[in-house]
Predict the structure.
Amino acid sequence: MKQLFRSAFLSLPLLAVAASPPPSAGEIVARAPASAWAELAAGDLLVIDLDGDQRIVIALATAFAPIHVANIKALVRAGWFDGITINRVQDNYVTQWGDATEKKPLPPGIVASPPAEYERPLAGLGFRAMPYRDAYTAKTGHAGGWPAASDGELAWLPHCYGMIGVGRNMPPDTGSGAELYAVIGHGPRHLDRNIALVGRVLAGMEALTALPRGSETMGFYKEGIARPTIRKARLAADMSNGERPAFEIMQSEAPDFTRWVEARANRKDAFFIRPAGAVDICNALPPVRPLPSRR
Amino acid sequence: MKQLFRSAFLSLPLLAVAASPPPSAGEIVARAPASAWAELAAGDLLVIDLDGDQRIVIALATAFAPIHVANIKALVRAGWFDGITINRVQDNYVTQWGDATEKKPLPPGIVASPPAEYERPLAGLGFRAMPYRDAYTAKTGHAGGWPAASDGELAWLPHCYGMIGVGRNMPPDTGSGAELYAVIGHGPRHLDRNIALVGRVLAGMEALTALPRGSETMGFYKEGIARPTIRKARLAADMSNGERPAFEIMQSEAPDFTRWVEARANRKDAFFIRPAGAVDICNALPPVRPLPSRR
């Protein structure tokens, strides 16, 4: 009893007779045709294995922050992240990893502080706005499998749960990409357009959230505390056949995607008394699902 | 280096000479006079001690859900929660606790399904709206130290990170209060007006978030998995002098509170290039701080 948000699936046959309710968001995703999905390029999939065999998989946002993403790929391929630790876990905010010694030199070819890739032209993105208000900007919606926000001219990735950003010092520094953070709480949207967002966690969030919070200022771990350590960071494209993970993401151009957004905004399963009539962008992150390992 | 969100405090003296920046949100809170704060009543403070000595402190929202809150207090005073376990941890959603056997009888006097205390009249709350849009409703703001949302006639608590709600079955069931959940991700505001919210976590969120996610449907723990257990749940009012915790909360009527909201919306410390110009209600939860234990 008292199973909050019990699935409506159980009672669907009965309801179908009574009222033929519209499909739920989950049902729309489950029934969407193959054409509604696209596999993420293996060259844009960052696979981070931690000591203890936890795995985090991150989609990299080349369309939004190409130079920062190129930096990250070069750091990965140089093995720079291997042995790096999680140093900061601030509750309802971010988990951050990088070189705790602050002395590990960057490999050659890394741009120490790329241009501020905090926003980009809206044109060319294929942005599709949701018909709902946003607290922070004129429009929010989706573009190529990404959540996005826009003022009509520029577009940017929003700071939602699971998004990956580039730690930086005071401006004009933009960060090299050698220090990264994941959002682990309510979307800190005030950071939008102030930091380069470079990706989204597709799997393994638990490895970033089910961690002791840091006791020091801004959630940094106290010196001497054992820290989760990256055993190996790789691009899926560099992993051998059969072992590399693969994911597909629902495409915002698909008619079923539009129906999914509407169903997220207007939940009509038997649990809900009053559908919200709206959904904010951080509660409408495009559906993602794993594919069998590629061969 | 790359300490994301490095505090502006370090560079303040220099900046003060150059431009005299307005105080940050944190500075406004730190400098607010005693009159801007009010201590929470010990009878409305729920103190949950878990095995392993982690403590969670929750403010109960009597003004929004009086009968559910009365139920919870009666359950606490009957010792009903002692020995109860956390049974569900769904990433980016909720951590939920209750009687895993689903057979523990409720003590006498508990209303099994109170009226649906999902909203209440706006009048009498002292609601102060923020001057910003909300994705979900007409107005959001604050009332008596609580975040609140309103359509102009009714008001309700919003589902923000750290808010506590009452698990329920399908309507018309509203839940007794014997099964509770805490929001541990981006605010699932679609649940607003569909469930009784009864409180807010003031301290100890880590005990609810730094937990393994459940592997079963909706994040329930698999049978046989070790679950965090409540050793003792008490009201602060029932704890002995010197051991009971105390908290104060910044009051929305205080001029400094209005300044704090504005500073949250327009961050002007040296880290920010572009202040957001707005803040959503879940990023503007009233500041809380512990007081010395009461004697």
